[in-house]
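Example record

Each entry pairs one chain with its bound ligand, adenosine-5'-diphosphate.
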Amino acid sequence: MNRATESELAPATRADESLWLATERLNLAQRAARFGIWDWYVTTNTIVWSPEMFHLFGLDSESRTASFEAWQSVLHPDDQVMAGQRIEAALQEHTVLDNDYRIVTPDGEVRWINSIGEATYDEGGRPVRMIGICSDITQRKQAEEILRTREEQFRMMFENHDAVMLLINPLTGDIIDANNAAARFYGYDSTTLKTKNISDINALNPEQIKAERLSALHEERNTFIFQHRVAGGDIRMVEVNSSPITLKGQTILFSIIHDITRRIRAEEHLQKTLVELTHSNEELRQFAYVASHDLQEPLRMVASYTELLARRYSSQLDDEARKFILYAVEGATRMQQLIDDLLLFSRVGTRKLPQESVSTEELLATALHNLQAAIDESGAEITRDELPTVRADSSQMLQLFQNLVGNAIKFRRPGEPPRIHVSACTLGQEWQFSITDNGIGIDPQFSERIFTIFQRLHAREQYPGTGIGLAICKRIVERHGGRIWVESVPGQGSTFHFTLGRLP
Ligand code: ADP
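Structure tokens for the complex follow.
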């Protein structure tokens, strides 16, 4: 008998019944566990398969007979040689056969089978019989495959990621693993890097290293700034993001290392440049102040002697000479104005800001008082809304209002008396002031440029001025933490806006 079918095992007599029951029980258990039993008589090369063996191989137990060839016929072509060799080896070495291989069922399904078996031998050591089981391990193999693929994905991600990554033993500081980016960054090959201790690459701060490891043991994530020494001896500034990973009670430190050397150098450079800039700004301010201050005296001399010349010797001079003297006086007056404005401009930055409560209504009233002559001459009509009290430097605020209202009067349209309105509204934490006029307006392409020193849009003969007024306004507003800008429709008027922080 080389195959065991259920009909053959049916009880013929009562005496056979218990045997039948035992066999049935075994078959059902094999079906449930998906394993089959095989029994191979090596010398006669006959094989007996339990019914489940046929199931495992997808063979029909009615039409197929168990045989070595039947088994070979289902073996996956790639595993055929190996499976045969394993049996050969087990028989020769008298060891237990334990082998995993693939089969292809007649309808093309690939299954993984685990075969375990042991042989018996005659006195001469020749195998007589080998008996064992086959079980379907397809699901286990598939799960292993998924796991292996995921593991490979994670490893590839770690190995090939651009970020420098290290795995460290927090107790000893030994580098357990390092990716390719780490090898490149530290200048060692991966194998050498994995023999190093973190203290070999940490240039300084043994205390910090300890802190890093301790924080890992306390399962904290942390960021540290270290100095790491790379293979050539170079020191790099690094920011290390460390997070502990605890698996099965064992903690390792996962560190991502960012090279911040360039950033730190750039910050240092920026800081140095800032100091130098502040220094040279201060020197420039000093220079502008001293120069304009010292220029005043000789200028006054030029002006007064030219005037003296005009007064005393006018009768002795011809018309042309008198015209030249007039030009000289005009030049001196203009220069005086320039120096005064430059002094004002340089002073805006030098004085420390006194933060006093200032009523802008009162300030505007003073500004209008100072501008009275221009108001009378132009017939200007100036209106205002209710204006707030702010915390500011009152003399600079006065200057600001005076410059803006003064410009609104000066840049009026010919034959059109100036209509000027001053208002304020809240804008979040700030006040926004607006001075609106009905003057000549400003082409929007110049709306930035006019706040730069000496930038004017008109000839002096048309509208007098030095081009410093709005630069002073900008400086004052910015020193108070605000912004200043203009909105205008050329030919219709302009509105100058500026902001100031609100009182807390
Ligand atoms: P200045 O008044 O001495 O010319 P500013 O710096 O005060 O210098 O102004 C720069 C330029 O901006 C002016 O020459 C003028 O062209 C333009 N400007 C300023 N205020 C107004 C205004 N209210 N309406 C039209 N143009 C203006």
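The mean pLDDT is 88.
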